[in-house]
Amino acid sequence: MENIVQKTTETVQKAKKAWAVVSLLFSPYVLVAVLLILICLLVGLIVSFPFLLASDQDKLTEVVPNSYVVAAPSQIDADGTLYFWPVPSIARVSSKFGYRDIGEGIEGHRGIDIANGKEKTENQPIYAMAAGTVTLAGSASGYGRAIYIDHGGGLVTKYGHLSAQMDVSVGDVVQKGQRIGYIGVGLVGRSTGPHLHFQIEMNGSAVNPLDYVQPPGADVPVELSYRSMNIPEVLKFLEKRKSALADVNILALIDAAGQKTNVDPNLLLAITGQEQSFVPKKNNHASEIIKNPWNVFGCWCSGKGATLTTEESAVIAAKTIVKLSADRPSGRNPIEWLSAKDNPKGYYAEHNGWWIGVSKYYKVLLDLRGGT
């Protein structure tokens, strides 16, 4: 009998606990909280659904003017390298790809606009994004003057609002990073001010240029900005000097570091001439020096500077040039500024004549390019 009473008591207690839980779940406070959460989720879905349904990734991607794009391009050239930013001296995207309103109502913008104020935009040189054949160089509806380049495989680039001074003609075959013309002065074509309209088409359809190119550091003056290295000629030059840097792979790494940072790889190599006499093979430490011929972190011989690869030290040296190039006063020689003691960012080398030696070697290497 006692067992029956005890079990009955336990069952009643469990029932009371279950009822308490049920009462809590269905209390007015809990019901109101759940209802509010459901309403918030529903409102969020209603607001975002039209955009998710009708928009593509290009139209949802924002490019903040006067800022660097953080995401790397999703498309690369056929040779596995990055495409070339068309205006090395300007990193500012003044108008994005997609829908915009420039005072005449909302319209679709089939490219991006690159500009940084009248004085820093007019007559700036522009360069081919990739190798290809020029299909138009002259007057173009809406653009005033433009250059079109067919890169093969359905890929076409268009450069609009240009100066009448052009470096190419229809039928010319151009290389990646080759100068092709200049941004026009004033209002050229349908525009609100000087800028480069840069457009990329794939199989006839406009695509977001920022999927292909990325704005580089724009602190580098145009005189020192990236231009491709003539590796075969540079190789001959270094071989005559019996340099340990006379290696196609090493030169390719230096060129890639320059392209990545918008620094002329010929300048990077010129610095090795001043710092290490281009690393003679007869030097007992040549195999170590070529890993850091720029003496980043103080020296190739000790500390962190002795742990780097050639690729790593080249990129660090190039980034140092970008940093030191900032805030250069008007009229100052851009190479002299890199080692100037009054440079607020610091200086590359302590020796006062450093920049003179670098300038000498830089001119020699530029002469090897045989072009622009």
Automatic annotation (TrEMBL):
Transmembrane segments: 29-53
Signal sequence bounds: none
Superkingdom to which the source organism belongs: Bacteria
Key words of the record: Membrane, Transmembrane, Transmembrane helix
Domain M23ase beta-sheet core: residue ranges: 108-209
Any Pfam family hit: Peptidase_M23
GO MF annotation terms: metalloendopeptidase activity
Protein name per its UniProtKB record: M23ase beta-sheet core domain-containing protein
Organism: Fontibacillus solani
The organism's taxonomic lineage, starting at the top: Bacteria, Bacillati, Bacillota, Bacilli, Bacillales
